[in-house]
Amino acid sequence: MHPSGWYPFVSLKERLCLAKITVVFAILLIALGLAGYFGTGAQHATALIPTWFGAALGMCGLLAMSPDEGRRKLFMHINVTLGLLGFIAVGIESIRGYVHAKSAGVQPDMIALASKLTMTGLLLVYVILCVRSFIAARRSRQV
């Protein structure tokens, strides 16, 4: 435990845990994209956007499963950047699509909106977990 009692030392096993969590989020995003695509009759290729984000996160998550600290840091920082950019982009697109549909007097596509909001939520949770881990790692080095 950290002398203050609040932050545990972050071991290699714990640092690799975030890379494993990344792979779990990647699998969830891939499943979301595939469910959206095939659940709507494979009509809209844009339903696969979560799949591509998931594939990128998963690839970098696997590359982050390295005992080399520099490599792990690099790929986890790439992942949190992808997560943050995805969160912002999809969040803005969710709002834009909803407002555009309502201003045109039509109902928004609720399946697409649900998929976008689910992706936004997953990426928000992922980014929060990454930031908490980064803070804990930094504080554990200050001792």
Shape: elongated
Order of helices and strands: HHHH
Distance between the termini: 11 Å
Quaternary structure classification: single chain
Q: Radius of gyration, Cα only, in angstroms? A: 18 Å
Q: What kind of sheet is the major sheet?
A: none
Structure classification: mainly alpha
- The tally of domains stands at 1
Helix content: over 70%
By DSSP (H or I, 4+ residues per run), the number of helices equals 4
Mean pLDDT: 86
User: How much beta, percentage-wise?
Assistant: under 5%
Low-confidence stretches: 1-10
Q: Compute the number of strand runs.
A: 0
Brief overview:
It is built from 4 helices and no strands. It has about 140 residues and is mainly alpha-helical.
Task: Summarize the structure in words.
It is built from four helices and no strands. With 143 residues, it is mainly α. Helices cover 77% and strands 0% of the residues. The chain has one domain (12-141). The protein is elongated.
List keywords for this structure.
disordered N terminus, mainly alpha, 143 residues
